[in-house]
Amino acid sequence: MELSLILVGILVGTLSGFFGIGGGMILIPILMLLGIDIKEAIGISIVQMVFSSIYGSYLNHKKGSLILGEGVWVGVGGFFGGFIGAYVSTLVSSTFLEYLFLMLLIFALYRLFASKPQDDGIVKTLNPIVLFSVGGMIGIFAISLGVGGSILLTPILVGFLHYPIKKAVSAGLFFVAFSSVAGLLSHLSVGHIDLEKGLYVAVASLLGVYIGIWLKDHVSSSKHKLYLLIMYGVALLILIKKMFIG
Predict the structure, then answer these.
(1) Fewer beta carbons within 10 angstroms: which end of the chain, N or C?
(2) Is the pLDDT of residue 22 over 60?
């Protein structure tokens, strides 16, 4: 099991760095296939997200692709929302969480498919209160599912606010750093995290994050979008197989 968790960590870390996601969207279905219950998988996913998002945001900022600015307001909102979201996950059934996760993936696929990738563009600015509110709502919804929130935030930035896709990816991973830390603190307080398994995945994911960010900087925006859609589609198929086929 330990070797499997390490290999999964490297894979998920690479996807996290490349796509700006926390990794839960892929990690949770894989852990479920390994026989881990969704609520335990959510806890492991949150530990991994803390490691990969903080390290990945540091690398993105160092390379100049992460501009803090408005992202701080969204991130702070995500922190408070993530703290609440961890408690939400204790109040609902695993089946309900699975269906919620399925709808989340379908929404993300639609928004990304409809968007037009661009390397440059005018980024809309929003009131800090609006940004904080958006971050808070995404944080509540995402952490209750064990995902960092960029699965929702990145399609919103690209599909509604017309962010260049690579800038949206960096902002999404930065958001995950806030929401996942809050989720980790609140999950630990209610005792729903297997730290040993989580650390195997999380530490291994750091290598993957480095690889993923390097790859991101060497592909065009159009190819980046195509790979993102493929990754979302694979996660959707894995989840459907687990839920309806077994």
Answers:
(1) C
(2) yes
Q: Which of 192, 97, 203 is nearest to 147 (CA)?
A: 97
The tokens of 58 are what?
């540091």
CA distance 212 to 204: 13
Is the confidence at residue 112, as pLDDT, over 80?
Answer: no
Per-residue three-class SS string for the chain: CHHHHHHHHHHHHHHHHHHCCCCHHHHHHHHHHCCCCHHHHHHHHHHHHHHHHHHHHHHHHHHCCCCCCCHHHHHHHHHHHHHHHHHHCCCCCHHHHHHHHHHHHHHHHHHHHHCCCCCCCCCCCCCHHHHHHHHHHHHHHHHCCCCCCHHHHHHHHHHCCCCCHHHHHHHHHHHHHHHHHHHHHHHHHHCCCCHHHHHHHHHHHHHHHHHHHHHHCCCCHHHHHHHHHHHHHHHHHHHHHHHHHC
Lookup: tokens for 154: 């990145």
Q: Which helix (H) or strand (E) holds 162?
A: none
Q: Which residue has the higher pLDDT, 92 or 16?
A: 16
What predicted TM-score, i.e. pTM, was given to this entire model? 0.78
Q: pLDDT digits over 208-240, tens only?
A: 999 999 999 899 888 888 888 887 787 788 778
> Tell me, what's the pLDDT at 200?
94
